[in-house]
Amino acid sequence: MSLRSSLRSSLSSIFNPLRVENDTDEELRAHVENRADDLERSGLTRAEAERRARIEFGAHEKFREECREANGAHFLHALSQDFRFGLRMLRKSPGFTAVALLTIAIGIGANSAVFSVVNSVLLKPLHYPKPEDLVALHQVAPGAAGLADFENGLLLSPSMYFTYAEQNRTFESLGVWTTDISNVTGLAEPEQVRAVVVSDGVLQSLSVAPQLGRWLMATDQTPRGPQRVMLSYGYWQRRFGGDRGVVGRNIMVDSQSAEVVGVTPKGFRFVDTDFDLVEALQFDRTKLILAGFGFHGIARLKAGTTIAQANADVARMVPIWMNSWSNGPGTDPHVYEKWRITPMLRPLKQEVTGNMSEVLWVVMGTIGLVMLIACANVTNLLLVRVEARQQELAVRTALGAGWRRIVSGLLVESLMLGVMGGVLGVAVAHNGVRFLVAAGPANLPRLSEISVDGRTLGFTLLLSVVSSLLFGLIPALKYARPRTSLVLGSVGRTISTSRERHRARNVLVVAQVAMALVLLVSAGLMIRTFQALRTVDPGFADARHLQLMRIGIPDSLIHETQRVMRIQNDILDKLEAVPGVKSAAFGSEMPMEGFDSEWDTVFVEGKAYQKGEIPPLHFYKHMSPGFLATAGTRIISGRDFTWDDVYGLRPVVMVSENLAREGWGTPENAIGKRLKEDLGLPWREVIGVVQDVPERALQEKPPAIIYWPPMVENLFGGGPAQPTRVATFVVRSERAGTEGLLREMRQAVWSVNASLPLAAVRTMQEVYDKSMARTSFTLVMLGIAGAMALLLGLIGIYGVISYTVSQRQREIGIRLAVGAQREDVLQMVLSQGTKMALVGVAIGIGVALALARLMTGLLFGVTAHDPVTFAAVAALLVSVALLACYIPARRATRVDPMVALRYE
Amino acid sequence: MPSQAQILPGMLDLLILKAVSLGPLHGYGVLLRIEQISQGALLIEQGALYPALFRLVRQGLLKASWGTSDNNRRAKFYELTSAGRKRLREEADGWNRLAAAIASALNTRAEEV
User: Fold this and answer.
1) Do A27 and B27 touch (CB under 8 A)?
2) Which of A70, A598, A659, B33 would you label with A445, given CA atoms 20 to 30 Å apart?
3) Once rounded to an integer, what is the mean pLDDT over residues B9-38?
4) Helix pair A356-388, A454-480: axis angle to 10 deg
């Protein structure tokens, strides 16, 4: 009973505090009037009676407060009072409020924006059911020379896929896939589309329901069986207008009829690949050999299976695979034991996010530091403000306000600042995300998923509250303690500043300088990395004037190798006839284009090989005569291919400089030497040595490369074979990238064969920029963070020094009056700032030395402890600090002793 | 005017319960009733009455309702709840025992020891 009624009264005062308040007022008023009535009856005038009644009643406010407390409404009332008071204080000093709000809003906004990217890319699970069970079948082969460069480790061969799919004990389903470019004809203009080619097990692993029709299945994999494809949602909308009758229709894919069996759901991405078509792999089991490591593996783990168990399972199957297949008669399947094939399965998410996770965490960390610096600035502002309000606080304390109440009042004020800043920050974040998506590398994984979502908003709120506490607690605790006598005593005259009063602010400034140093060092290291990358010889010249496009000639369109070669040759002739084109050529790909690379073994003449030994694998490319000259790649020694070499099927080859040095000592020595791909094949003569080219990325060591002519003799004799059916055509022209040139180039190609589509049309500059994207994105982000840190640090130092100067006016005036020189005063103020900056720089260097190692993976051509960067940043910070002190220092020297002494 | 005594802490609650037990009263009435039943011997700070009233309502010992006073003023009337009645009995017993004990202690003469 008692509990219930007590609860009821508390609740009613919480939900209806105003009514309770009015009731109380009315009751107290009634009391006073009743009393006045009685007094009036005893003979007093009404006015006198009322006055006496009020006096008898006592301190009205005090009792009201006590009543509130008795009613249980005290806490909420106090809070709302603090809130209203805080709002009034903030409105009263708009300058302070604006600066503080802006600082907080930008800090919180930047953090929320970066967090929303981190959240979307790294934290949110993939859009597949039970994504934690999905793994990429990553494996490494440390014993396979030349394979170490593979970013993807050792891919799976078709025979491996069959062994793994049939013998495993730990996978729910397992499959392999690869990407391809297909030509679709007969719809409108011939079109090159992006295809993923999948085996059975891949779509089962991803286990998403199709939008329409059915998934590809095992029955679609019959070798030489009917071709069946699925359309992506986007392609279905774009080409078929979302027509549901498309299932069952036939389209021409690579000049073969293929039945459309289904449409993938909207937004479905294959791992992290956008695509137009899904095609089925049709392996012929009877013809499979051990080799052919060209497929990505994907699998779904059985429920409750760990990655370690799955790794052990795959390791168990590797010998089974070696025993089940061979590389043909006379070969030893156990040569692969030397490769030490080791499974290293990775969660699919890790595969998707790839090397961006490191960048994003570094960016998140730096932007978090900026937030800390911003908090330090706001703390400083609040400290100055609280100092100015000391008198008010002292009066309140003297009138009986408890220090808890004062602390809570100050905290509510900073909480309001923080939350209002957070709300503004959401607007900043919204725009920031748009900037990040635009500035981020085009290959940023899961780009389409990035948005400001509930979790980001929660993060923003949390950040607002935590930072409010961070910048609110120090001033609140420092000034709320009762120090009545001291403060009331000093109301009249400003005492000279004591050390103790400035310690908090000085510590904050030192911390700011230290954090700014860390940020600027990381930005500086990125600048040095960027510079180092710019000086790497990319193996091509004047990328802006190189126009690229991919043209593929499918087997089903033109079968004979010689004719493919003729058509490619004709295309080159037509392209060279386009006005403004200096030269044209083609090759398997240009550096950094990012198509799956091809690797092959190379035997060098005169070197002894053990029976069954597999020599190192080398990266190889095919190219037409003039490819190097068009691209601007230097020939170090010897000569380029000629068309006679190509059509004559002459056994000639070119090699990269590092391969030549490795095999024969010098580039010159290599000319005339011979090598071959396999023991049974004829030797081929090295006719030229090409400069080293960083094929995959500027950061990576240039691989050893073998260059073949576009058409070579069949492996086992008997005429030409292996034409380069899909190739990048390169055109050097001042008009590269213009719409006019592209139109004329298209016309030139179609005048040779109207069924040939063009794809990946871009300038070499775009390819180059894309390969730099990760570095430039990191550079831009760290640059922004560094600039913000520098600016905030500058403001911080300036604020503290100029405040100190204004506080010390009297003291400075006295000094000047008793004969100090103005230079002495200048020096005194400057040395105070410099001292803080130097301490900050020293601490910052220590921290930066420890932290910079975290970004080693992002650096190139510079160590994480690069002394030049550290020295430059330290010098920059100290000079900025001096600048920030100089203005208030100058003001100090202009203090007029008379005015200063008469002041107040 | 008879000499007045400052009441002890805690006694105000007891006096309020007693005053209200004689019939529903508004705040000023409680004050008058206490003065009356103590023959004006006890001094009560007028404002301090209300926090005590609210506290007793909150503890469920009193219940309050709005009504009209004799001079046609809107007033809040307090009356005892059953819990309040029980509390009054206990407190009164306690007080009587304490007063008796103190009185007998103070009346003791030297020869009685």
Assistant:
1) yes
2) A598
3) 84
4) 30
